Amino acid sequence: MRRAFAFSMYRSPSSTELLAALCVTADPVYTLEGRAPEVRADFFGTGFIVGKGRILTNHHVAQPWWKNDELAAVFSQGLNPSIADLTAYFPDATAGVPVSISEISEEADLAVLKGDLSGLKKPILKMDARKEAAVSGQPLVSLGYATGISAILARAGEDVVNEIAKATGGKPKEVVNELLRRKLIRPLVTQGHIGDVLPDKIVYDAQTTSGGSGGPLINRDGEVIGVTFAVVKGFGGSNFGVPIRFAQPLLKP
Description:
Strand content: 35-45%
Distance between the termini: 30 Å
CATH topology: Thrombin, subunit H
Shape: globular
CATH class: Mainly Beta
Number of domains: 1
């Protein structure tokens, strides 16, 4: 299975530069009978740098089958998923960075990936892990790669899309590499407000969708207060973020 994910009103300096577009290629299913090519699927999500060689994202981005009801029936037959390729793509980078899973939270939909980020020289966003960091009614900014590569291609223009399709044959990983080469990988930035604050989630209305999972939620002081993990389809006023304090146990040296 291939997975790809990438990483502003109030933004800290160069905040979009440290968002990784993550591309995951996975072998989600192995056949139990006969001989045939393994089944592969591509997934896309968002992550951001939280330390030396570390990227924070969602558990369901790092392992797309986790709590995935659509795949539950398949796995109940004894089939097992695995990750074939996990790559992070950053704006203005010259190549994707191979990454692997380092830590997975037992409390929330969060995971830390590790990889060699030494050549990127990207800044690290400050975090506000206090319970008081998120207050209902306050503004925030959502950063991420909502819709995966679809929104990136839509912004590129028809002529560029046709050129990329011809050069890559439409293969997802080759498409992402071509977008990177053309310096077209940039996250979407949306503004909104906090609608509610619950013990385990932040409810907000800044628009996002699939692909934006794992992106940071930034307050008016330019600090990360949460990580997007879910949306309510059909109602843009209820997107959900994990309070950043749940990431603290994963970020200890």
